[in-house]
Protein backbone atom coordinates (compact mmCIF):
# COMPACT_ATOMS: atom_id res chain seq x y z
CA UNK A 1 0.00 0.00 0.00
CA UNK A 2 1.28 3.48 -0.83
CA UNK A 3 1.88 5.63 2.26
CA UNK A 4 -0.45 8.53 2.86
CA UNK A 5 0.90 11.93 1.89
CA UNK A 6 1.60 13.97 5.00
CA UNK A 7 2.26 17.66 5.25
CA UNK A 8 5.13 17.90 7.68
CA UNK A 9 5.12 21.66 7.88
CA UNK A 10 2.71 24.19 6.58
CA UNK A 11 5.39 26.07 4.72
CA UNK A 12 6.73 22.93 3.01
CA UNK A 13 5.30 20.89 0.20
CA UNK A 14 3.95 17.49 1.29
CA UNK A 15 6.22 14.49 0.82
CA UNK A 16 5.58 10.75 0.80
CA UNK A 17 8.93 9.61 2.08
CA UNK A 18 11.59 11.29 4.14
CA UNK A 19 14.34 9.04 2.85
CA UNK A 20 14.42 6.03 0.60
CA UNK A 21 17.25 3.96 -0.85
CA UNK A 22 17.22 1.49 -3.71
CA UNK A 23 19.95 -1.13 -3.93
CA UNK A 24 22.62 1.17 -2.50
CA UNK A 25 26.18 -0.15 -2.42
CA UNK A 26 29.41 1.51 -1.35
CA UNK A 27 32.82 0.05 -2.06
CA UNK A 28 36.01 1.51 -0.62
CA UNK A 29 39.32 0.75 -2.29
CA UNK A 30 41.61 -0.31 0.52
CA UNK A 31 45.19 -1.61 0.54
CA UNK A 32 45.02 -2.97 -3.02
CA UNK A 33 41.65 -4.68 -2.34
CA UNK A 34 38.06 -3.50 -1.99
CA UNK A 35 35.92 -3.20 1.15
CA UNK A 36 32.25 -3.75 0.37
CA UNK A 37 30.93 -1.48 3.12
CA UNK A 38 27.29 -1.50 1.86
CA UNK A 39 25.94 -4.41 -0.18
CA UNK A 40 22.52 -3.44 -1.50
CA UNK A 41 20.57 -1.34 0.99
CA UNK A 42 16.82 -0.83 0.56
CA UNK A 43 15.17 1.24 3.27
CA UNK A 44 12.45 3.79 3.73
CA UNK A 45 11.67 6.24 6.54
CA UNK A 46 8.29 8.00 6.52
CA UNK A 47 7.26 11.35 8.08
CA UNK A 48 6.99 11.03 11.86
CA UNK A 49 8.85 7.71 12.06
CA UNK A 50 11.51 7.17 14.73
CA UNK A 51 13.76 4.44 13.36
CA UNK A 52 16.84 2.86 14.96
CA UNK A 53 19.75 1.57 12.90
CA UNK A 54 21.53 -1.15 14.84
CA UNK A 55 24.78 -2.79 13.89
CA UNK A 56 28.17 -3.83 15.20
CA UNK A 57 31.22 -1.66 14.78
CA UNK A 58 32.24 -1.69 11.10
CA UNK A 59 28.82 -2.85 9.87
CA UNK A 60 28.34 0.26 7.69
CA UNK A 61 26.17 2.62 9.80
CA UNK A 62 28.20 5.80 9.37
CA UNK A 63 28.85 5.04 5.70
CA UNK A 64 25.10 4.72 5.15
CA UNK A 65 24.16 7.88 7.07
CA UNK A 66 26.70 9.94 5.10
CA UNK A 67 25.24 8.67 1.83
CA UNK A 68 21.66 9.39 2.94
CA UNK A 69 22.40 13.07 3.35
CA UNK A 70 24.51 13.36 0.22
CA UNK A 71 27.84 13.84 1.99
CA UNK A 72 29.13 10.74 0.17
CA UNK A 73 28.00 9.02 -3.03
CA UNK A 74 26.94 5.40 -3.39
CA UNK A 75 28.97 3.18 -5.72
CA UNK A 76 25.64 2.06 -7.20
CA UNK A 77 21.96 2.46 -6.39
CA UNK A 78 19.80 5.51 -5.74
CA UNK A 79 18.93 7.69 -2.74
CA UNK A 80 15.81 9.87 -2.49
CA UNK A 81 15.46 12.53 0.21
CA UNK A 82 12.03 14.20 0.50
CA UNK A 83 11.14 12.39 -2.75
CA UNK A 84 14.05 13.99 -4.60
CA UNK A 85 16.73 11.89 -6.26
CA UNK A 86 20.11 12.97 -4.87
CA UNK A 87 22.03 11.87 -7.97
CA UNK A 88 19.99 14.31 -10.09
CA UNK A 89 20.89 17.26 -7.87
CA UNK A 90 23.96 19.49 -8.06
CA UNK A 91 26.32 19.81 -5.10
CA UNK A 92 24.84 23.25 -4.39
CA UNK A 93 21.29 21.88 -4.40
CA UNK A 94 22.27 19.09 -2.04
CA UNK A 95 23.97 21.53 0.32
CA UNK A 96 20.79 23.60 0.27
CA UNK A 97 18.64 20.55 1.00
CA UNK A 98 20.85 19.73 4.01
CA UNK A 99 20.82 23.32 5.23
CA UNK A 100 17.04 23.67 4.94
CA UNK A 101 15.64 20.23 5.62
CA UNK A 102 18.13 18.05 7.50
CA UNK A 103 19.30 18.16 11.12
CA UNK A 104 22.32 16.17 12.27
CA UNK A 105 23.53 14.89 15.63
CA UNK A 106 26.68 12.97 16.51
CA UNK A 107 28.19 11.13 19.46
CA UNK A 108 29.83 14.37 20.56
CA UNK A 109 27.76 17.53 20.69
CA UNK A 110 30.45 19.50 18.78
CA UNK A 111 29.48 22.81 20.38
CA UNK A 112 31.74 25.82 20.18
CA UNK A 113 32.87 25.84 23.83
CA UNK A 114 33.26 29.60 24.18
CA UNK A 115 29.92 30.42 22.54
CA UNK A 116 26.71 30.36 24.57
CA UNK A 117 24.05 27.70 24.08
CA UNK A 118 21.95 30.33 22.31
CA UNK A 119 24.81 31.29 19.95
CA UNK A 120 25.52 27.65 19.15
CA UNK A 121 21.88 27.02 18.28
CA UNK A 122 21.81 30.09 16.05
CA UNK A 123 24.60 28.80 13.79
CA UNK A 124 22.37 27.01 11.22
CA UNK A 125 20.18 30.13 11.10
CA UNK A 126 23.19 32.33 10.39
CA UNK A 127 24.11 30.00 7.52
CA UNK A 128 20.55 30.35 6.23
CA UNK A 129 20.83 34.17 6.60
CA UNK A 130 17.90 34.46 8.99
CA UNK A 131 17.74 38.04 10.37
CA UNK A 132 19.06 38.59 13.89
CA UNK A 133 15.81 39.16 15.77
CA UNK A 134 14.15 36.14 14.16
CA UNK A 135 17.26 34.06 14.93
CA UNK A 136 17.09 34.94 18.60
CA UNK A 137 13.42 34.04 18.77
CA UNK A 138 13.83 30.71 16.95
CA UNK A 139 16.87 29.68 19.02
CA UNK A 140 15.04 30.50 22.27
CA UNK A 141 12.09 28.40 21.17
CA UNK A 142 14.33 25.46 20.24
CA UNK A 143 16.16 25.64 23.59
CA UNK A 144 12.86 25.79 25.46
CA UNK A 145 11.69 22.77 23.46
CA UNK A 146 14.59 20.67 24.80
CA UNK A 147 14.10 22.02 28.33
CA UNK A 148 17.13 24.31 28.33
CA UNK A 149 15.51 27.73 28.15
CA UNK A 150 17.23 28.69 31.42
CA UNK A 151 20.68 27.72 30.14
CA UNK A 152 20.55 29.85 26.98
CA UNK A 153 23.36 32.15 28.10
CA UNK A 154 25.70 29.50 29.48
CA UNK A 155 28.76 28.77 27.40
CA UNK A 156 29.18 25.35 25.82
CA UNK A 157 32.02 24.53 28.20
CA UNK A 158 29.83 25.32 31.23
CA UNK A 159 27.24 22.66 30.36
CA UNK A 160 27.11 18.99 31.34
CA UNK A 161 27.42 16.31 28.63
CA UNK A 162 23.66 15.71 28.61
CA UNK A 163 22.93 19.44 28.45
CA UNK A 164 25.41 19.81 25.59
CA UNK A 165 23.66 17.02 23.72
CA UNK A 166 20.31 18.74 24.27
CA UNK A 167 21.80 21.95 22.85
CA UNK A 168 22.97 19.86 19.87
CA UNK A 169 19.39 18.62 19.50
CA UNK A 170 18.07 22.20 19.65
CA UNK A 171 20.63 23.14 16.98
CA UNK A 172 19.49 20.20 14.83
CA UNK A 173 15.85 21.28 15.21
CA UNK A 174 16.05 25.04 15.05
CA UNK A 175 15.58 25.43 11.29
CA UNK A 176 12.59 23.05 11.41
CA UNK A 177 14.07 20.17 9.43
CA UNK A 178 12.01 17.28 8.16
CA UNK A 179 14.73 14.65 8.46
CA UNK A 180 17.01 14.12 11.45
CA UNK A 181 19.95 11.82 11.23
CA UNK A 182 21.95 10.95 14.32
CA UNK A 183 25.07 8.82 14.70
CA UNK A 184 25.15 7.36 18.23
CA UNK A 185 23.73 10.48 19.92
CA UNK A 186 23.66 8.79 23.34
CA UNK A 187 27.05 7.06 23.00
CA UNK A 188 28.79 9.33 25.51
CA UNK A 189 25.96 9.75 28.02
CA UNK A 190 25.05 7.85 31.18
CA UNK A 191 21.99 5.66 30.76
CA UNK A 192 19.48 7.97 32.48
CA UNK A 193 20.58 11.05 30.55
CA UNK A 194 20.62 8.97 27.36
CA UNK A 195 17.06 7.85 28.09
CA UNK A 196 15.91 11.48 28.44
CA UNK A 197 17.43 12.37 25.07
CA UNK A 198 15.86 9.31 23.41
CA UNK A 199 12.38 10.12 24.71
CA UNK A 200 12.77 13.71 23.68
CA UNK A 201 13.85 12.69 20.16
CA UNK A 202 10.98 10.25 19.89
CA UNK A 203 8.31 12.67 21.01
CA UNK A 204 9.62 15.37 18.67
CA UNK A 205 9.62 12.91 15.72
CA UNK A 206 6.00 11.98 16.43
CA UNK A 207 4.68 15.45 17.24
CA UNK A 208 6.41 17.34 14.44
CA UNK A 209 6.24 14.58 11.80
CA UNK A 210 10.00 14.55 11.44
CA UNK A 211 11.56 11.37 10.08
CA UNK A 212 14.46 10.25 12.28
CA UNK A 213 17.07 7.60 11.63
CA UNK A 214 19.37 7.00 14.58
CA UNK A 215 22.44 4.77 14.44
CA UNK A 216 22.94 3.33 17.90
CA UNK A 217 24.24 0.61 20.20
CA UNK A 218 21.76 1.67 22.87
CA UNK A 219 19.18 -0.97 23.87
CA UNK A 220 16.87 1.73 25.27
CA UNK A 221 16.75 3.26 21.82
CA UNK A 222 15.81 -0.05 20.16
CA UNK A 223 12.90 -0.34 22.58
CA UNK A 224 11.73 3.24 21.98
CA UNK A 225 12.01 3.02 18.19
CA UNK A 226 9.00 2.52 15.92
CA UNK A 227 11.15 0.15 13.86
CA UNK A 228 14.65 -1.28 14.16
CA UNK A 229 16.79 -1.79 11.09
CA UNK A 230 19.64 -4.24 11.72
CA UNK A 231 22.67 -3.72 9.57
CA UNK A 232 25.09 -6.58 9.34
CA UNK A 233 28.09 -6.61 7.05
CA UNK A 234 26.56 -3.94 4.80
CA UNK A 235 23.10 -5.52 4.55
CA UNK A 236 19.85 -4.63 6.33
CA UNK A 237 17.26 -6.82 7.92
CA UNK A 238 14.28 -5.31 9.68
CA UNK A 239 13.30 -6.38 13.15
CA UNK A 240 9.62 -6.93 13.68
CA UNK A 241 8.52 -5.26 16.91
N1 LIG B 1 37.30 5.82 4.02
C1 LIG B 1 37.30 4.49 4.12
N2 LIG B 1 38.19 3.73 3.41
C2 LIG B 1 38.18 2.39 3.48
N3 LIG B 1 37.32 1.67 4.24
C3 LIG B 1 36.43 2.36 4.97
C4 LIG B 1 36.36 3.79 4.96
N4 LIG B 1 35.36 4.19 5.80
C5 LIG B 1 34.83 3.06 6.31
N5 LIG B 1 35.46 1.96 5.82
C6 LIG B 1 35.13 0.56 6.11
O1 LIG B 1 33.76 0.35 5.82
C7 LIG B 1 33.14 -0.46 6.81
C8 LIG B 1 31.97 0.27 7.45
O2 LIG B 1 32.46 1.36 8.23
P1 LIG B 1 31.50 2.36 9.04
O3 LIG B 1 32.31 3.48 9.55
O4 LIG B 1 30.35 2.69 8.18
O5 LIG B 1 31.02 1.41 10.24
P2 LIG B 1 30.09 1.73 11.51
O6 LIG B 1 28.97 0.74 11.49
O7 LIG B 1 29.73 3.17 11.53
O8 LIG B 1 31.04 1.39 12.73
P3 LIG B 1 31.11 2.05 14.24
O9 LIG B 1 29.99 1.45 15.04
O10 LIG B 1 32.46 1.58 14.71
O11 LIG B 1 31.05 3.52 14.09
C9 LIG B 1 34.25 -0.85 7.80
O12 LIG B 1 34.75 -2.11 7.42
C10 LIG B 1 35.28 0.24 7.59
O13 LIG B 1 36.58 -0.25 7.87
MG1 LIG C 1 30.11 4.75 12.88
Automatic annotation (TrEMBL):
GO MF annotation: an example: ATP hydrolysis activity
Record's keyword terms, sorted: ATP-binding, Nucleotide-binding, Transport
Taxonomy, superkingdom: Bacteria
Listed InterPro entries: AAA+_ATPase, ABC_transporter-like_ATP-bd, ABC_transporter-like_CS, ABC_transpr_LolD-like, MacB-like_ATP-bd, P-loop_NTPase
Domain ABC transporter: 19-240
PROSITE patterns from the UniProt entry: ABC_TRANSPORTER_1 (PS00211), ABC_TRANSPORTER_2 (PS50893)
Pfam families reported for this sequence: ABC_tran (PF00005)
CDD domains the record matches: ABC_MJ0796_LolCDE_FtsE (cd03255)
Signal peptide: none
Any single GO CC term annotated in Swiss-Prot or TrEMBL for this entry: plasma membrane
SMART domains: AAA
Alphabetical list of PANTHER family matching this protein: ABC TRANSPORTER ABCH.1, IMPORT ATP-BINDING PROTEIN
Designated name of the protein: ABC transporter ATP-binding protein
